[in-house]
């Protein structure tokens, strides 16, 4: 998958993602806080947020960095950057700058940075090693790059079910392991290898459980349908009636996660960290 196709997907989904951002991001807050802890983001830190989306993790990083710190939020999709700017402005923060930029094109970015973070982005980049090398180049010696990606599919039931249904309807085969797939880095050893191949040292990968709550499977399906660019791409080439049939099947399948309190889907995230050598 090319950078152009990725940007096109997210350009088309930016409005939906911005609409659903709060609900979509709430379940990621614990994992995001862990990511920021591991990245050692604190007062005065200069932070690079790669693939900022609509800016929820940007705000969390900026609040930690404080007035003496700074966050540069980048995204390949201009509508996402615009959404992040609105999120940052609503939070009343003045220590954030934004840029439309691919992770692989960071040369000339106003570094060096103390830390770089990437939430649910690295696995979607066609050449994640090249992207990680670009990040490595703009970090200070000793700076950390921390990437959060989806984890074990056996422990992310609702996501795996939705993806498998959409892939089957879209006629997609052997897509999981391809570069740019949402599942391309679910194996912790692959994520670690990307960081090592990019030149990072002291590489480790941890897993963090999460749970997505929604009022119903129908609402969960609607959010996926409107906001999740990769999921939508699996059936984008189908006629409208066949796309609709796929979404109906997704909603029916996700009803197994409904209970008295609504939809509750467990998930697991991998968090990989590497440090730029000081010598």
Summarize the structure.
By secondary structure, the chain is of the alpha/beta class. Helices cover 44% and strands 23% of the residues. The model has no long low-confidence stretch (mean pLDDT 90).
Characterization of the model:
- The chain is α/β, with parallel strands linked by helices and 279 residues long.
- The chain has a single domain, classed as Rossmann fold, CATH 3.40.50.150.
- The protein contains ten helices and eight strands.
- It has helices spanning 3-26, 29-38, 56-65, 78-90, 128-138, 157-169, 188-197, 217-227, 229-233, 240-254, and strands spanning 46-50, 70-75, 96-100, 113-119, 139-150, 201-214, 258-259, 262-275.
- Strands 1, 2, 3, 4, 5, 6, 7 and 8 form an eight-stranded mixed sheet that branches.
- Helix 1 packs parallel to helix 4, helix 6 (157-169) runs antiparallel to helix 10 (240-254) and helix 8 packs across helix 10.
- It is globular, with a radius of gyration of 18 Å.
- The chain starts with a helix and ends with a strand.
Number of helix segments?
Answer: 10
Cα-based radius of gyration, to the nearest Å? 18 Å
User: Mean of the pLDDT scores?
Assistant: 90
Number of strands: 8
- Percentage of residues in DSSP E strands: 15-25%
CATH class, named Alpha Beta
What is the straight-line distance between the termini? 36 Å
Spans of at least 5 consecutive residues whose pLDDT stays below 50 are none
| CATH topology grouping | Rossmann fold
Shape: globular
What's the CATH architecture name?
A: 3-Layer(aba) Sandwich
The secondary-structure class comes to: alpha/beta
Helix content: 40-55%
Order of helices and strands: HHEHEHEEHEHHEHHHEE
Question: Structurally, how many domains make up the residues?
Answer: 1
Oligomer: single chain
Largest sheet: 8 strands, mixed
CATH fourth-tier homologous superfamily: Vaccinia Virus protein VP39
């Amino acid at each position: 998958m090319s950078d152009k196709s990725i940007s096109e997907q997210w350009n088309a989904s930016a409005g939906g993602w911005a609409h659903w951002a709060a609900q979509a991001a709430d379940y990621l807050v614990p994992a995001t806080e862990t990511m920021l802890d591991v990245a050692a983001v604190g007062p005065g830190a200069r932070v690079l947020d790669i693939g900022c989306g609509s800016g929820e993790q940007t705000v969390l990083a900026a609040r930690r960095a404080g007035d003496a710190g700074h966050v540069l939020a980048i995204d390949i999709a201009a509508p996402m950057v615009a959404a992040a700017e609105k999120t940052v402005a609503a939070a009343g923060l003045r220590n954030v700058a934004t840029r439309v930029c691919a992770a692989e094109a960071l040369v000339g970015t106003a570094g060096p940075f103390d830390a770089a973070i990437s939430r649910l982005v690295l696995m979607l980049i066609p050449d994640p090693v090249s992207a990680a090398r670009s990040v490595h180049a703009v970090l200070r010696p000793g700076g950390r790059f921390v990437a959060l990606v989806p984890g074990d599919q056996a422990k992310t039931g609702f996501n795996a079910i939705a993806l498998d249904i959409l892939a089957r309807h879209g006629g997609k085969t052997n897509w999981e392991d391809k570069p740019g797939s949402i599942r391309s880095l679910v194996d912790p050893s692959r994520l670690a290898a990307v960081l090592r191949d990019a030149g990072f040292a002291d590489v480790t990968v941890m897993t963090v459980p999460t749970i997505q709550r929604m009022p119903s499977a129908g609402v969960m399906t609607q959010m996926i349908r409107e906001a999740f660019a990769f999921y939508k791409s699996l059936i984008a080439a189908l006629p409208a009636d066949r796309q609709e049939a796929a979404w109906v099947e997704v909603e029916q399948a996700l009803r197994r996660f409904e209970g008295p309190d609504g939809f509750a889907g467990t998930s697991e995230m991998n968090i990989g960290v590497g440090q730029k050598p000081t010598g």
